[in-house]
Amino acid sequence: MLIIGEKINSSRKSIKEMVENKNTEFIRELARKQVECGAQMLDLNIGTIRKNEPENMQWLVRTVQEAVDVPLCIDSPNYEAIKAGLEVYNWDKGKALINSVTAERERLELILPLVKKYQCSVVALTMREEGISHDSKERFKIADELVKKLTDEGIFIEEIYIDPLTLPVSTNIQNANIVLETLKRVKDSYPQVKTIIGLSNISYGLPERRLLNQSFVVLAMVFGLDAVILDSTDKNLMALIKATDLLLGKDKFCKQYLKAFREGRL
Amino acid sequence: MVELKELSEALFHGDVLKVKELTQMALREEVEPREILEQGLIKGMDVVGEKFKNNEIFLPEVLLASQAMYGGLELLQPTLVKSGVKARGKVIIGTVKGDLHDIGKNLVAMMLKGGGFEVVDLGIDVSPEKFLRATQEHKPDIVGISALLTTTMVGMAEVINTLKREGFRDRVKVMIGGAPVTQEFADEIGAEGYAPDAASAVDKARELINNT
Q1: CATH number of domain containing A169
Q2: Is A243 contained in some domain?
Q3: Residue A196 three-state SS
Q4: What is the pTM of this model?
Q5: A75-92 pLDDT, tens per residue?
């Protein structure tokens, strides 16, 4: 399971302030902490800061890469910000993950050349111009189109991360089921395609969000999840993922689990 | 005798059946429809909004309470129309062009309805032209615009400019909201109202209506 740290996201007020004030030490510390807790990649999302997103993204990429050695997930709906972030990216630290393209033609056509140019991985959201479907069959249909389109363009199938879109269960009680069913459909048809979810959105609007996040990640793993954007500083959550990986037969000789035990991470 | 307090409490608890039953009873007992609306339904939704703002209740409970409110409102509507009780004001609301997020917008629309406003929901991905046409058609007091993305929130200014260009700007107040939106941004684009959450949006809308 690829663990992607979610914390450098400007929808959290403190992060917004720290990015606006260019607080290098704060951001570096947050990057280090997430990696220490087991993040293998860090997500950078400053979508809620309106001004200078490209410039801010460049500052973030540089600042974070000076502090840690993991690759980054450049997360923005804004093409200019993704482009700017990739321009200063240090490729010695591993392949970047672009987050994201959708089946919206305009967005796809803008971002596709970047994926090709830098040969990075890419997240593909199962949505179109008209919005997000509440039907897993429809979401799979979009995933199917995206996989075909991206591989036709020469993107390796293993570099595609399908995101079935996690919406809060507080607004529609079927929202978790829709994700799980979409994951299953994608994995049944394309075992080589990767899958990814942003975990925390599932619990929006409810108390004790960690509990729901923990349950949901286990379920998603059963249905074929490969990568997850989450709070890696949640120790219980990280231990649960280790245990689930083991139970699903993905941790040979229980190596990772035992390593985590000896490091006091369980 | 129906106690309207009981009605507002049933609404708060999201008890659709009880809300309907009590509304029906109140109507039979010929309680003033305005009283039923204000002391029963609106009062209940005010408590919902307040408690939601203070994190004492949660999103699904708000949605359930809104359903209960709709249940009561549906029964009350014909009598309200007949007796000429007017809504506190009319609001058209939509998520700005290019933006498909609707949770916040729906919540505000619900709370406004619960607050006694007539609400026309234009949905998501609403172009400035569509806002304009809806303004011409519905003659609202307030135009509400929602956005969740910094890339789309700039479109709010376009809506305001379109209303200005077509001569409708002075006839409406504009309210904006959404995660990246701030009071500062509202001032910058010349929107009269900004609210950080759904309950405050109702207060803001009431304030804007009362000042006209």
Answers
A1: 3.20.20.20
A2: no
A3: strand
A4: 0.85
A5: 998 899 999 999 999 999
